[in-house]
Amino acid sequence: MPAPELNQDKKESLRKKYLFLAEDDDDDVEILLESMQKLDQQIDVFVLKNGQQTLSYLESLPEERIPGLILLDYNLPEINGYQILITLARLDKYKSVPKIIWSTSNSPFHIKECLDSGALNYFVKPSEITGFYLFAKEIIDILHSP
User: Which one of 82, 99, 136, 142 is least enclosed by Cβ atoms within 10 Å?
Assistant: First the structure.
């Protein structure tokens, strides 16, 4: 017997709890996830560490599994976050999905190219735990926004 199809409101509700994270630094992933869990234990996070894997995964993802937010490290191996943004901008299924870049770089050039290519925001990675907690709060606020 096939599973019942979810109505649009239920799909949206599930999306609001699903974060896709592309990050190759294990420490950054661990600290961010711990910070997010303190704020909302129901957030589902899927992590990949490589830009090419990220792009392949997102391109093949069915509509019902589209995340509520995509968080990309700028400096991913093989393909960087900016290049992923460029590709996602061409895919209709990602037009309404907020995309955020985070990086250790505060280069005005990188910031501008990412914002011009569809990023909702660009954050410089925090250097201390309290910064990660504040960043996690912003991520969760975006996920929960209408």
Answer: 142
pLDDT tens digits, one per residue of 66-82? 999 999 999 999 999 99
Report the candidate in 128, 145, 143 with the shortest Cα–Cα distance to residue 42.
143
Backbone angles phi, psi at 72, to 5 degrees: -120, 130
CA dist 75 and 81 (Å) reads: 7
Question: What are the chain's domains?
Answer: 21-144 (3.40.50.2300)
* Three-state secondary structure call for residue 103: strand
| Residue tagged 């975006």 (tokens) | 142
Q: What six digits make up the tokens of 141?
A: 């606020």
pLDDT at 127 over 50: yes
31: helix, strand or coil = helix
- Tell me if 81 sits within 8 A of 51, measured CB to CB: yes
